[in-house]
Amino acid sequence: MSATPANFTEEGDTLRFTGDLTLPTLGEVPRRLEHLPRAPRTVDLSGIGRIDTVGAWVVRRLERDHQVAIEGADDTARRLIEKVSEVDQPAPVRPAGAHGLAAVLDHVGAATAVSLHTLVGLLGFFGGIVLAVWQVVLNPRRFRTNAVVRQIEVVGIDALGIIGLMSFLIGIVIAQQGAVQLRQFGAEVFTVNLIGRLTMRELGVLMTAIMVAGRSGSAFAAQIGSMRLAEEVDAMRTMGLSPMQVLVLPRVIATLVAMPLLSFYAMLVALVGGGLLCWLQLGIPPVTFVARIREVVPMTDLWGGLIKAPVFGMIIAMAGCFQGMQVEGNAEEVGLRTTSAVVQSIFLVIVLDAFFAVFFTMIGWI
């Protein structure tokens, strides 16, 4: 059925509409209604064909602005006009914000409140993980071996390439920059010490944690957030399944297992990169490089890095799953929560690394 262009005529105090009051057929009607020579008292819709919400809004605006009476509307038109009238309410106006120092204090206070609220939420989420572990211990059949193995593959094995390349390049950068700076004091031989202690003690585990946070922590938040939007998490609860046991626990365990292995792998690859540059630029053969590493790098550096790794993994997995569980509303929030998961993970990892540095110094691991 072809659409008929909308039109209206003025007959005394009455506007008589004809044609279809729909978006494609309205044409110049809204603009002509704004320039009426006098306000009508009655709107006659008996001559119209189809009407949609835009046409209903045009009629509703006449009713609101001129208090006109509507006549001749069929059930569809009347129902649409009533629905449009229900949502035609004044929107609340946001009060003017503060300016200057007050605005800065306002932002700082709001950010502090959000941070404290998130910290409380993370502590509560950690309690939920502990409870889920206890329930699995009491009933081992709830442990999802396949899911854990799959997550270990995603978090660990699939990340070997990018983490290996990053660590190799970091080893080269440390060696090159260290050699340039130490050459000024005639101490190029100590480049090996610099490479060994930095990679084993700090950079190996720290850069691995940052990569895992950006790669896997964000994926956890996006996956669980998308499931929240699709109401799959609610469906699990309805079926008697615990999302903490099904979704969160496998990811946490996988990250706990993968992080120490990835960190050790990153340390070795960084040493290879640094050793290669020492061989090519400083003339230190690989055998001498390895022997020197064994002399100058204490085992406490290795243990320190490996002790930190599972703690960082726990933080990354917990932040990613927590932010995913907080998703509500729309797809835009999935992106925002994913970003928050990465930022939160890296921030907490660096804070904890500082605490570990102080702790290891206090117990004599220097």
Automatic annotation (TrEMBL):
Pfam families: MlaE. Its main location: membrane. InterPro entries: ABC_MlaE_roteobac (IPR003453), Permease_MalE (IPR030802). It is found in: Cell inner membrane. It is a multi-pass membrane protein. The chain crosses the membrane at residues 114-134, 155-175, 305-325, 345-365. It comes from the Bacteria. Keywords: Cell inner membrane, Cell membrane, Membrane, Transmembrane, Transmembrane helix. Could be part of an ABC transporter complex. PANTHER family: ABC TRANSPORTER PERMEASE, ABC TRANSPORTER PERMEASE PROTEIN-RELATED. Belongs to the MlaE permease family. This is MlaE family lipid ABC transporter permease subunit.
